[in-house]
Amino acid sequence: MTTLLERFIPEAREHLENAAAGLLKLERDPSDEALVNEVFRSVHTLKGASGLFDVPGLTRLLHAGEDLLGAVRASVVTLDPPMADALLDALDRVSAWVDELQRHGRLPDDADGASVDLSRRLRAFIPHADEIVTAGALATPAARADWLAELPEADRLTAFAETLAGGPALLAVSYVPDDGCFYRGEDPFNLFPRLPGLRSLQIFRREPFVPLAETDPFQSALAFRALVAQPRAAVEHLFRYVIEQVVIVAVPPEALVLPVGDLVNPGALPHFDGDAKRRLAARDFSGLRIAVAALLEQTDARLWVASALRWLDAILAAQLPNPIWASAMITAIAEVNAAPAGEAKAPGLFAPKPEDLAPPADAPDRPMAARVLAEQMRIVAMPGDPEVLQRRMAAVEATVGSLLSSLGWSVRDGELAAATAEAAGGMPEKLRELITGLQVRAERAADGPEAVPASMAPLLATSATADPGQPAAGDAAQVAHVLKVDQAKVDALMNLIAELVVSKNSLPFLAKRAEDVYGSREMSREIKDQYAIIDRLAQEMQRAIMDVRMLPVSEVFQRFPRLVRDLSRKLDKQIELRIVGEDTAADKTIIESLGDPLIHLVRNAIDHGIETPEQRVDAGKPEAAMVQLKAFQEGDQVIIEVSDDGRGIDPVAIRLKAFEKGMITEEKADTMSDQDSINLIFLPGFSTAEEISDLSGRGVGTDVVRTAVEKINGQVTVSSRKGEGTLVRLSLPLSMAVARVMMVEAGDALFAVPMDSVAETVRVPRSRVRRIKRSEAFVLRDAIVPLVRLQDLLELPGQAAEVDEEAVLVARVGGAIVGIVVDRFREGIDVVLKPLDGVLAGMRGYSGSALLGDGRVLLVLNLKELL
Amino acid sequence: MAVVFTTTRARFEDVCTVEEALPLLEFLRSGDDVEVDLSACTYLHTALIQLLLTARPRMTGSPADPALARWVAPLLTGPNIEGDESDG
After folding, report:
1. Domain ranges in chain B?
2. Inter-chain CB proximity B45 and A213 less than 8 Å
């Protein structure tokens, strides 16, 4: 892996996390502009950085995400849950790819396909996505299909006729392969024959002519333009691997009507204008076609006018000829015809502005629609005798009908026919109403696509200019303060410091030897002085390295907003997650091992604890439930509480269940306290879920939580009130690296017991030890405490010494009190606990070993396993 | 062999891949009086189309393949459409 990629991966993760966290907050408050900017910037920066590597799928997906966020930022769309789902899924996918990059240095094989699918899903949320893509990718006029006139007229005429006859909508596809595409095994031209709807294809060199001698045969210099009658998705699918080099624009049929040819006045069309207009007004389309055909015969086929006549013929050949198009064409022909020789200009056709000749995607000539409708209104309003009225209304019906089909709009079946029939009978009200409705619609449609690019403009401008500056400044500040270090290095440093702590412990022994063996009290004192200094420094170093390893609990908490959101959507429960004290810090090992237990607890709370909104309302609670994650420090422990205000735990139900499963006896069930009953949920195999859901109740019970927490020397307690909620409390040590243990002697060997399981040490006179069958016990403050002998427990050789008083270490093991008889108590010390490894790893009863100052190895007992 | 070269003639047969680009370039550079025969070609890589478009050698016979006949052959036989108009 390259250094650059190594640096990219952690950065990418950070950006992804920021973006995901931001999105979740944003979903709750979509109006927070600062947040939108933050998420946008994360995705934007990441996209930019990813461009340094050969990961087109990843970059493309981020680009789509950036576009959607850009639209959110420009207030074109509002972030809603499905959109957030799509964005989060995309981020998840990118995150998986980053993992893959780290492992294998490349994206998985299916990345490109997945990227296209996910990108499309994202883009589907952006209204008029094509325009944004176009503007973002290639903000040039070429992005619009203004090259249609260059396609052969015959191809365009065929496509035009097909579309008017009800064929699929047309797309203009412009594909500019990049220089190196041949090296990647791409073969641009041969994609096109695979489009069954290919109607026209233009292949041309992107650059002016290069002499053959200077040609690089492996550098692509071609570009392609095509007219395709096929659904957009099929075209995008074919071009999916090069989609960023392809611009696809929808083409309304009238955009093809672009006569070409020499603009010379043929002078052969006398009175064409007046005659044609008359025939058109009378809807004598076939007569007009005959006239056009006759004119064509007299006209040089290479002239502009001939081309225009061919188009006029094509317009008239449609089943329902569009009179507006025809009329515009006739006017244009007349204009050229009337112009003095040599001064003719190509007249504008249906729209006066040149840009309207190539309308943007999904926006057929809308101003035209408005004009057509206004004209129809005028016609409807004209008085006339019944016969004229009837013909006129038939024409109106035809015009409006063809307008609707060309815009892809529809009205209720038969509504248009009924309205025109009524109008022909002298009652035009319904028809007027209908046309007015369409006018309103046309206006709205015209506003829509116009408004979008305008509001997009600031977005595009800021993303191009403002952003690179801002993050750069922020990054510089960050670099100055934060040093990213591989965790292994910190661990190595910690191990060294631990060794130092242990070796410094040998100095007091040395001092003692100096005095005892060499008889130098002076030397002994000096060593002790030096020891005091080294001891202080070592402790400070230890504290410092602990600080380095300290992580805030937010590391684990931050995944919960997403989890809770997903679960609440899945289960249709309204849940508000409250996180308190996320800055509370604890050792990395502790924090990391917290993840799974917490997920389990939160899932449990949501799945079992929280009622459905209806149940909550019935119970007089607010509809939205509350789940709280709270962390705080208490002494040398970190406390993490997971609480909910759900239905709570029913101790009676628990008892019943435990009894049914044969976990407790009937008498025990009858006499158990409620709290003890609740604690039963920690027993292995216990699950009260009425039915196994997808979320929890998969056979792993709360016992998993307890095991995981106890592994890091923590404790779990549950308290719950039926109907009011449940609180699970995890108490965890702040740090695992240094453990406080109490040393004890048994059978001439030294052992240690973790200090947090020691309740007290007592000396019990032999006479007070009672024998109950084969077990021993004694009474401590009115409670019977069972006694075990460490020597027996560990099967140590040697006879227990006969003493008057037994040294008993009273320990708490899994909630029960037990007395452990040892030979002698020794002092408590801090040790660096090292797990047993190698062949000793599987040995039960020990949680690890520690080195003493005099070189002896101290075995630390795991009482829970031992008893 | 997908492209069979003789001194003045290149005959394209069946599938012609990007591998042929370098030999074709050499062939096209070898002299002005060269001709190409696409009639038996069924697949012509873009890189080869690009070279033919640049060199515009004489064509003998028309491709049997419909896509090549429709979209490529006219570019090589018709008037030179290179130039300003293609920059659109």
Report:
1. 3-78
2. no
